């Protein structure tokens, strides 16, 4: 139990760097298109090395050759339409705002179930409503007051797109791969097949004369290292240890709520992000409560 909890909390700590560093790149003048593209461009050689060292590269390439269309489509949805809007959202508010709203992915995941012939789990609807209430509390002040209300709506819209694209693309790819590829192989394949999207995005940014400087390159590499490699491996290890026990699995998955707290602390301390108002702090607490309720509901269904 202690090891699962420790691994999960540590993974949420490293996941938080995605939101902190994306905001940092934005504040230092980095263009969001490069912040998004560079993460995956840097991830590709690392994943090729990790999977290649295990001798598992050929099955990935063979799977892509068998169904190139679905691979390209759902990799672009699951990675491209997920991470590009999420990164762009960092232009519209502090890092704690982005990571809090990102929990809309839980809401999207629940309502995507019918696409796979599954019912919407009724015991998760309470958690969904709690999370949505937290989102309303966080953004309600800005929208109702008219102060940056348009930006608040754009931010929510971008994250809503990302929150739907991430589970949709990943679930479609899991269905396509079945048991033929393990998680690192699938992530590598999706990175390869989303490459056209990232190259087009990079070309658009370059055509606009917006080239990354050394600072943005370094921070984008840290996002790749901390989030795409370290955090993901730690989280997968925690869930693997807990997979035989639904209760422990809910504990492992619930630790992801820690990324909100770590991002809030890191953003305020490192980037001098403004502190949330009292109402916004309440919204963050409500979202975390909704996440934990969802984990409990998931354990009850298992």
From TrEMBL:
<dbReference type="Pfam" id="PF13536">
    <property type="entry name" value="EmrE"/>
</dbReference>
<feature type="transmembrane region" description="Helical">
    <location>
        <begin position="217"/>
        <end position="236"/>
    </location>
</feature>
<protein>
    <submittedName>
        <fullName>Multidrug resistance efflux transporter family protein</fullName>
    </submittedName>
</protein>
<keyword id="KW-1133">Transmembrane helix</keyword>
<feature type="transmembrane region" description="Helical">
    <location>
        <begin position="95"/>
        <end position="113"/>
    </location>
</feature>
<feature type="transmembrane region" description="Helical">
    <location>
        <begin position="7"/>
        <end position="25"/>
    </location>
</feature>
<dbReference type="InterPro" id="IPR032713">
    <property type="entry name" value="EmrE"/>
</dbReference>
<feature type="transmembrane region" description="Helical">
    <location>
        <begin position="31"/>
        <end position="51"/>
    </location>
</feature>
<feature type="transmembrane region" description="Helical">
    <location>
        <begin position="248"/>
        <end position="272"/>
    </location>
</feature>
<keyword id="KW-0812">Transmembrane</keyword>
<keyword id="KW-0472">Membrane</keyword>
<feature type="transmembrane region" description="Helical">
    <location>
        <begin position="278"/>
        <end position="299"/>
    </location>
</feature>
<feature type="transmembrane region" description="Helical">
    <location>
        <begin position="71"/>
        <end position="89"/>
    </location>
</feature>
<feature type="transmembrane region" description="Helical">
    <location>
        <begin position="187"/>
        <end position="205"/>
    </location>
</feature>
<feature type="transmembrane region" description="Helical">
    <location>
        <begin position="144"/>
        <end position="166"/>
    </location>
</feature>
<feature type="transmembrane region" description="Helical">
    <location>
        <begin position="120"/>
        <end position="138"/>
    </location>
</feature>
């Amino acid at each position: 139990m202690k090891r699962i909890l420790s691994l999960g909390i540590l993974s949420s700590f490293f996941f938080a760097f995605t939101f902190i560093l994306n905001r940092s790149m934005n504040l230092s003048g980095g263009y969001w298109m490069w912040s998004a593209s560079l993460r995956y461009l840097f991830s590709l050689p690392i994943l090729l090395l990790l999977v290649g060292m295990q001798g598992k590269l050929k099955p990935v390439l063979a799977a892509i050759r068998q169904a190139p269309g679905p691979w390209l489509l759902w990799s672009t949805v699951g990675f491209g339409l997920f991470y590009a809007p999420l990164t762009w959202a960092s232009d519209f508010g502090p890092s704690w705002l982005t990571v809090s709203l990102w929990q809309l992915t839980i809401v999207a995941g629940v309502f995507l179930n019918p696409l796979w012939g599954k019912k919407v789990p009724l015991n998760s609807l309470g958690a969904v409503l709690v999370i949505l209430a937290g989102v309303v509390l966080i953004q309600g002040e800005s929208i109702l007051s008219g102060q940056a209300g348009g930006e608040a709506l754009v931010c929510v819209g971008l994250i809503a797109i990302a929150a739907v694209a991430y589970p949709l693309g990943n679930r479609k790819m899991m269905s396509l791969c079945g048991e033929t590829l393990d998680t690192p192989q699938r992530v590598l394949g999706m990175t390869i097949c989303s490459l056209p999207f990232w190259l087009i995005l990079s070309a658009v940014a370059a055509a606009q004369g917006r080239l990354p400087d050394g600072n943005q390159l370094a921070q984008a590499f840290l996002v790749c290292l901390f989030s795409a490699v370290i955090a993901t491996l730690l989280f997968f290890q925690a869930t693997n240890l807990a997979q035989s026990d639904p209760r422990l699995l809910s504990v492992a998955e619930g630790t992801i709520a820690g990324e909100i707290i770590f991002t809030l602390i890191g953003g305020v301390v490192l980037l001098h992000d403004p502190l949330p108002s009292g109402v916004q702090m309440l919204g963050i607490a409500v979202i975390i409560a909704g996440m934990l309720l969802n984990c409990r509901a998931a354990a009850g269904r298992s």
